[in-house]
Amino acid sequence: MVKSMLNVTCTWDKESISANGSKQVNLLIEWGYGAIRKRKGNLIPKAAGCDLQLQFIPENGVSLLKAEGVRLGFKRSENGDSMFVHCGDVRRGKYRQAILTFSIPTHSSGRHTIGMMEWSWRKPSQEKRTLIRTDQLYIHFTHHLGLLSIPSNPKVEKYIKLNETSPIVKKALRMYEKGEYERGAFILTRQADELLIRAARSDDMDYLQEAELILAIRNKWSGTFVSFTAYSSKVIFNKAISVGDVHFTENDILR
Prior knowledge:
The chain has helices at residues 145-148, 154-162, 165-177, 181-202, 205-237, and strands at 6-12, 16-18, 22-33, 47-58, 63-69, 73-76, 83-91, 95-104, 110-122, 129-142. The chain is an alpha+beta fold. A hairpin with a 6-residue loop joins β9 and β10 (129-142). α3 packs antiparallel against α4, α3 (165-177) runs parallel beside α5 and α4 (181-202) runs antiparallel to α5.
């Protein structure tokens, strides 16, 4: 096994899965280089490696269905025997996260490997790709109902839930742009309510902050798009007003 300065941590959403297999198993992967550092001012951390790539080589019947995270690229090899996740550049002291979702077939009880992960990158100013780390990926299979009923790992569950914000906000924006303001507001409100419930149950401020952000977006968009519609109506019914005469003021947008 190849080890390197690239630090990788893997956390399953469930400690054990059914020996009958599962169509969706989530793995939180965290990776980075060196000690975690807080960003100072506008200084960009120095690059340790470029174009980090994770290649997953599965055991028979295992499939990597998707990868979700910031600026990730996901593709399959031509023969389908491996999957690639492009993770971008690696900077010293900076760590990133992603959720990998697998489909895993039936297996006998016990801890078994489901595939190999190979990490490679290019050194800054070099074209040659270098293998820097390999890891066997294991999971525990069981028929024990007590083990299967253990709640999902809260850290993994949290990342999955917070990662929903971006696509939900994009979906709501499309609704607002179509003039479906109530539907757009409902989508944002529903997500914010779910986050507030999680915040109350877990006493986790990250859920609360995410909910407040979504509600702020909803309030601003409701004010902005409604104001724009009102102005557009005036333009249509008053031929003396051109689009160039329409301007927003601070009072037209909800703070």
